[in-house]
């Protein structure tokens, strides 16, 4: 089964929360910006691995972000 990495650059987030609406399992409102749920505790760049079962909603979040601060890539 393929694995994917979700990378979220919180420093670029403008607080539109489109990612939260598209993918509430992995993104949550945290004050004036979103957080990537279950990610490492990095201040600005948050990352986590997901499986194929979560790919569609995470790709949706990537697609609706108005500042393109979410990236989803396949890991090897």
TrEMBL record:
Its cofactor is [4Fe-4S] cluster. Gene3D superfamilies: 3.30.70.20. Residues 4-33 form the 4Fe-4S ferredoxin-type domain. GO terms for molecular function: electron transfer activity; iron ion binding; iron-sulfur cluster binding. Keywords: Electron transport, Iron, Iron-sulfur, Metal-binding, Transport. PROSITE patterns: 4FE4S_FER_2. PANTHER family: FERREDOXIN. Ferredoxins are iron-sulfur proteins that transfer electrons in a wide variety of metabolic reactions. This is Ferredoxin. It comes from Candidatus Iainarchaeum sp. The lineage of its organism: Archaea, Candidatus Iainarchaeota, Candidatus Iainarchaeia, Candidatus Iainarchaeales, Candidatus Iainarchaeaceae.
């Amino acid at each position: 089964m393929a694995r994917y990495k979700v990378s979220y650059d919180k420093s670029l987030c403008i607080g539109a929360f489109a990612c939260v609406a598209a993918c509430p399992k992995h993104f949550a409102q945290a004050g004036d910006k979103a957080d990537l749920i279950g990610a490492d505790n990095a201040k600005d760049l948050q990352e986590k691995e997901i499986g194929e079962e979560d790919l569609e909603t995470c790709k949706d979040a990537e697609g609706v972000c108005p500042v393109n601060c979410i990236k989803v890539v396949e890991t090897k």
